[in-house]
Amino acid sequence: MCNPSNETAMECRNNVYWSVNSNKRKACDCPKSCRDDRYQVKMASGDFLTKQSMYYFIDEIMKDTNEMPKKFINNLLKKFIEKQITKDELLAKIRSSFAYIEIYFEDLEDETFIERPAYSFEQLLSAFAGNIGMFVGWSVLTFSQVFMIIFHLIYHFILLLINQ
Length: 164
Description:
Elements: H1 7-21, H2 51-63, H3 67-81, H4 87-97, H5 121-163
Helix pairs in contact: 3-4
């Protein structure tokens, strides 16, 4: 927390706030994460406690080691026994004070993406050397063909000079 009376701290806070909330965010040189968990969220709701299950729920709360819910339930039960609240009011107060959450996974499928290099060093070196060899071979063939054409041109030129 920044102390509002400290101008340096407030200026620092403002700089951080504007750098985070501005559209001109700095580029991140962070490496890609090794693990990325994504879940689709679907919510449904309903009343978790009925008049029939209320007593079972109260028993389960009383078995719990946490004292806060026990005190709350005891106070409500005391009011119920003393006829200060009705059974419906007791149920409504318990429903509004507790939540029952169930988490389900839609599917248990797990996708694993493994990143591997396309070439090992040896394969890369081999492919590079093969390409170099091919280009050198083409160069030698081209050079020899050019040399043969020049040789034939000179030979025919000399024959023409001799025949004249």
